[in-house]
C-alpha cells in the first residue's frame, strides 16, 4: 500500500513519529489536535491504523505526567475496565511521548442524568480496582491530599506564588487582598478544631483520575463516553476527587446533575465513616484551591507551558478573563454552607 509523506503542517516531534512507526509501520500523516493544557496531542495515521500520539514536553521540575497516565491506564485496563478508558499502546520515557488508542468521538459538551450515572459507574470500577495486588505500586495522585494540612499547604503555596506575581499586577493584588485572602482565612479557621495532620488511612483512599470530568471526555458514535487525560492519576482522598469534579471551571453542571453526583459518590465512598463529614467541611476549601488554579495564567512559567500546548494567545486578555472567572467562583463560594453541594 502506498502511503503519502507526513503532512508538514502536523509538525509532530520526530521521536513521536519514530514511536508510531515502531508500533504501526510507516506513518502517513500526523495532525496536531487540540491538546490539553500542558501537552500536544496528534492524530497519527500509520499503516496499521490510527493512534493518538501524545508529547508531554519536559523541564527540570516536570512531574512524571507520562508515567502517571500510561502506567495508570495500563493498570486500569488490566483490571478489566473497558471502553470508558482509552488503551495505552507504547511509550518512550526518555523522549517524553506515548501512543494511545485513537478514540473516535466528539467532546461531551452536552450531558445529562445518564452520563452522571456513567461517571459514578466508572468511579465505582476504579475504586474496586484499588484492591488488585498491583495497585500498591501505583503512585500518589499529583497534589494528593491525605490530611487537611496538605490542602492548607497547597492553598498557601499557590497564594504565595500569585502574591509574588501580584506586585506588578494591580488588579490581581487588589482581588487577593480585599476579597480572596479574607475568605481563605475564614474557611481555614472553620477547620481549626480538626486534627489537621492526621493522615487518611490507606483503606479510606481511592484511585483517582484527578483531572476528571466531562471536559476530559469524548462521546463515541454509539453515545458512550470515554474519559481521557490521566496525567495526574494515583492514590488520593475521594473527597478531593469529588470536590474537584463539582468545582471544575471547565464544566457546566445543572443543579440536578450536581445533586445526582453528590448522592452517587456518597453512596460509593460513604461506607468509610468520615467521608461525608470531610466532604462537607473541605468542599469550600477545594473551591478556593480552584480559584487559585484559575489564576495560573498570571504566572509566567505556567503561561509558557500553555503556550507550548498551543493554548497561549493574548496573555493580557487571558489574565483579565481568568480574573473575572475567579471572582465569579468566589461569589459562588461565599454563601456556601455545610452540606450544600450545588452552585
Short note summarizing the structure:
The chain has 343 residues and is of the alpha+beta class. The protein is 45% helix and 13% strand.
SSE sequence, one letter per element:
HEEEHEEEHHHEEEEHHHHH
Q: Within the largest sheet, what's the order of strands? A: 1-2-3-5-4
Share in helix: 40-55%
Radius of gyration: 21 Å
Spans where pLDDT lies below 50 across 5 or more residues: 1-9
CATH class of the largest domain: Alpha Beta
Mind describing the biggest β-sheet? 5 strands, antiparallel
Tell me the overall shape.
globular
What is the typical, i.e. mean, pLDDT? Answer: 89
% residues in beta strands? 5-15%
Number of strands: 10
CATH third-tier fold name of the largest domain: Aminoglycoside 3'-phosphotransferase, Chain: A, domain 2
Number of helices: 10
Number of domains: 2
Structural overview:
The chain folds into 2 domains: 8-102, Phosphorylase Kinase, domain 1 (2-Layer Sandwich), CATH 3.30.200.20; 107-333, Alpha-Beta Complex (Aminoglycoside 3'-phosphotransferase, Chain: A, domain 2). Helix content is 45%, strand content 13%. The protein contains 10 helices and 10 strands. It has helices at 14-24, 65-78, 113-129, 148-165, 170-189, 238-247, 255-269, 275-294, 300-308, 315-333, and strands at residues 27-32, 40-46, 49-55, 88-92, 97-101, 106-107, 206-208, 217-219, 225-227, 234-236. Strands 1-2-3-5-4 form a 5-stranded antiparallel β-sheet. A 3-stranded antiparallel β-sheet has the order 6-8-9, with no helix packed on it. Helix 3 runs parallel beside helix 7 (255-269), helix 4 (148-165) runs parallel beside helix 8 and helix 6 (238-247) crosses helix 8 (275-294).
